[in-house]
Every structure is written in structure tokens, then in C-alpha cells.
Protein: Cellulose synthase-like protein h1-like
Amino acid sequence: VPELPRVDLFVTTADPVLEPPTITVNTVLSLLALDYPVNKLACYVSDDGCSVFTFYGLLEASKFAKFWVPFCKKYNIQVRAPFRYFSEVTKSEDSQQFKQEWILMKDMYDNLCQKIEDVTRNPSSFQFEGEFAVFLNTEKRNHPSIIKVILDGLSDGLPHLIYVSREKRPKYEHNYKGGAMNVLTRVSGLMTNAPFMLNVDCDMFVNNPKIIQHAICILVDSKNGKDVAFVQCFQQFYDGIKDDPFGNQWVAAFEYIIRGMAGLQGPHYCGTNTIHRRYAIYGKISGDPEFNREMGWVYGSITEDVPTGLNIHRKGWRSEPITPDPTAFMGCAPGGLLTTMVQQKRWGSGLTVVFFSKHSPVMGILFVSYAALVAYCIITNTNIFPKGLGLWIPLTLFGIYTIHTLQEYLSKGLSIRCWWNNQRMITMRSTSVWFIGFLSAMVKLLGISDTVFEVTQKENPTSGAAAGDDANAGRFTFDESPNFVIGTTILLVQLTALVVKILGVQLEAHSGNGCGIGCSKPTRSEPEPTSGPRRSEPKLAASEAQTF
Structure:
């Protein structure tokens, strides 16, 4: 179709252990099977871990794609990530031919997964020959650039598929995901140079095969689309645990906050599930500026999406949210408490750096200070809130906030338990990993140490039972991780304050007027002496009293 523009597809992965190759393979297969002309698509996979197993998985997946993509388009399959599609059995009303092909496809997919699993379980037996020889003696943070064209987009009837692992050296800053995205932008600009670019994380597979058409309709709109830099699809997750015990599914947040930002310049860039206008990423360049300062993904923070989105909006571009039915992309939310905390700490550190840059979860230090202040006031027998009618001000604000947030959850069909779990997790992450992230950012800004990028662990996809069937799903597991130190310390301080209050061994309060935060409780005034003559007060004349 000559009228449709070309689109480059970017997939990023960073660690073959925390992000197993099977996850990346499923995302790539869903992209190759998009309902879009194959000669208009090119898929680039950035492997920041320089893993031969990721490349091996993509190479084997390209062979499977020659059968999988035609099967999806022949039967108009909606979910085109194999692990999700094969999690459901065929229906009785399906034709016999379809059932036979379904069984054949599933056997081929199971064989693909088995091959990938075999090489990852026995890395010592892998033969670094032929296409794999370039990976010999490479290290994750010390290797040359590796670019491999797996599918050329001509002879196979499939989109281009290109593997990219950028050069890394120990003494040079690689700028995390922002650096990887800039490399993909440059490489694709030289090879296919599509006017639009889709970027997804390795675990965000395509759930709506027509999502590119939906986004392009907005970007090429002659009336309102010229100033749209990117179209943002919300992050939604499959097999979410009931009532969201870890508070990481973000249903209400995306519905009310991100969608609500459409009235401004549009939603902020979320780092994934985004269709960009290449020209907006490049920007208007005058002179000879550095690529990452005037164009491309902005460096300086491990949450590269926030400063990049702010920089795009600062130049006057708009963004648009898009919520097609069915959902555009689906991913896996962190499946445990520690994984959730690691993710939140990374976000907290990155956002704090953004807050103190020229372009935040400073709430982390505020929550910790508030939690410590309550215990301090109990132990020292002082007040944190104003007395009298003034006390109704914070109580009223708290009540309004509680009712409003609860109404948001209920209006989306979520349970009260889900609302409670999310409020609980807000407190937990604010008083623990956000504060740790804040300290980490301060250490970086002071030049003492650099920030460590921690990849969020993804669960290896299976076509078996859902996560909700796990008896341990949603349980909080605590270990020796430093992510729990701050929260545990605050809990012990609060318990100590309660014991002090119950035993009545609080410190003696000093005089004060009880005006509010940190003010002591007023002491009872001393009685006047009963002995001795009392000095009589002078009486006012009637005229003076009236004047007064």
C-alpha cells in the first residue's frame, strides 16, 4: 500500500537472565505479525546485554516466524504473541483444518522454546561458530558493536529483523536505555529511516495487531496531527493478581492521571508502547550540538523517558493518548514485593535526578519525615496537628482525598480491596525505596558515586496456568534486601512510640501554645496564692467604661 508510511519498530532488552530470551522472542514475533504491509516495517532489537542466547533466540524465532505470521493473518488471530495465544485451547466450532494447523503451530512453538531453554541451561556446551563467532570472549560491559541482519525483508515475505548490540567499554558511560534508544535511532536512520518509530520494552507484546494504523491516523491527520510528536498507549498487564496487592498495575493512574493530561500538551512519554515522529526526536538543529542534548533520548537519568518527554513538550510538540479496543499492548507486571521495590527505587532515583536538573519523588523524603515526626511527637508528648477547630482542616482534606480516590477505583470496576492495596503500597514504597532512590540520586549529584541501573526481573512466559492460580501469588516476601531497611526502621520507631505512650513514660512536655506541628501541649497554669492581701483593681468611671 503506497499511501501508508514506513514504521521502524524498536525492542529493548538488557539482561538475558532477568529478561529471558523467550520474552523478547514473543514480543518480536507479535511485531512481525502486525496487520501492516511487511515492506513498510523494520524491527530492530537492542541487546544491551550482548547475549549470544538472545541472538540465538531471535535467529530461531525468525525461522518460526515464516510459519507463524502467515498463520496469524490467514485466520485473523488477535493475540499474536505465541505464549499467550497457546494458553487457550481451540474451540469445538473451529474447522478441522484450523485445528490441525493450530496443533502444528503449537508443536513448532514448543520446539522453539525448548531449543532456547536448552542453550540457556547449558551455556558451556554452546558452539561459538559461524554467526555466533563474534560473541566469543565478549563481556556484558566490554564488547564491540554487533549488528546482524536476521531477516532482510525481501526474500522471506516478512519485515526486516535486525539485531543491534552497541559498543560498550568499561571506562565510558553508556547512558543505560537512553543510550540504547539513540543507537537504534541512528542505525535505523541509516538503514530504513522510517518517518515513524514504535518503541516497546521486551515484555510488551502486541495485543491489537492494528495498533499501527490507529496511531498513524493521528500522526498524519492534516488538521490536528502536524504538531503531535508521539502517540502514547497505556501500559496494561496480563494475568494480574486479584486486587493488585503490590500496587503495580496502575489501572486508576492511567485512566485518570495520564488520560487527564490530554487537556494540557498530552500525556508524558512512558518509555514504552509509544509511536514517535522521527522528526520530533531529531528536532531542529542549529550549529553542531551533541546528539543527546538537542535531539534524541536525553541522558542524565536512569528514567530516560521523563526528561525526553519533557524536552519534546518544551519544544512545543503535543502528544496524544490512544486507547483502542482491544488493548494495544500487554505486558507482565512485577510478580513479587522485592521486584516491585527494585523497580520503584529505580524510578525514584531517576525522577529525583530529573527534579534537580534543569528540565520527583521528593515525596519520598517527605513521607519519611512525616512518619518519623509522628513517632517523635508521641514520645516527646507534643502535637503534630493544630488543636480546636483547626484540626478539622487536615481531617477534611484527608477525608476528601480518601473518598475521591475510592470513587475512582470503584468507577473502573475495581474492588475496595484493590483500592486499599494500592494505598498501602503507596505508603510502603514512599517510605522505603523512594527514599533510598532519593539518597542514591543525591550521591550521584554530589559526584560521590554513580547510579546503578537495576533491570526489573521478568517472569519467563509460559502457555500454562495463569499467575492468579498460584497459591503464593500476592504474598509479601521479605528478605535481607536493603530496600526494606528504611521501612522496617520506621515500623520499629512507630512501635516504640506506641509502647512509650501505653506505658506512660513520655518525656515531660515543655511550655507551649499547642499551635500545631512540633508544638508541645500547654501546661496547666499555676493557681494564684491564697494567702496575703490581694491588690484591688482600679474601678473605671462609668464614662470611661462606656468609652472603652
Summary: The two ends are 93 Å apart (CA to CA).
